[in-house]
Design brief:
26% of the residues lie in helices and 29% in strands. By secondary structure, the protein is of the alpha+beta class.
Length: 208
Amino acid sequence: MQLDSLRITAILPAPPARVYAAWLDAKEHAEFTGGDARIEAGVGGAFTAWDGYIAGRHLELVPGERIVQSWRTTEFPEDAADSRLEIRLEPRGAGGGQTTLTLIHTGIPAGQGVMYKGGWGEHYFEPMRAYFEELGAAPTVRGAGVAVAPAARSVTRKAAHAPAEPAKKAAPKGATRAPAKPAKRPAKKATRGASAPEAGGRRRGSSR
């Protein structure tokens, strides 16, 4: 059977180490996609994203440079092998403050490549740009990767849920803007087979 493949390039307003860390951090992955994510650390670790719609394992990890994963969704036929997802990260711009992300997705079941191509842009790269722009991509070192400072993330979470203040009351000095939440995903039933990663229903696929 002939399989589909994709190659997509996106520019993100954060350095490669920052993008790498956010992709592999369950909390941040959920924040920029809008769906629950569970991610185990290290090569061989399992992950799920988009409320279990996506599942797989880490095959290769090069901090700040490369992520290779087995990858499938609940749209894959039961007897289909996992696809292979490779994320390449390269510094861009003055001081390497931006990232050129190259996504190479191979081994996709025939006929599904079109919907995943649209889904990567709409449900990953666009909200990731907004996420890093609003957050300011301020890094702190944590282990081999880089992650957002806990204090900064705490402030933005509180700001996002705080009730609106009266117009006459001035905002406190040093207040941090809350990151814009990605656009609400359309109901899965309405997008089935349209664009992915949001294209499918909620039946859970197995990870191999």
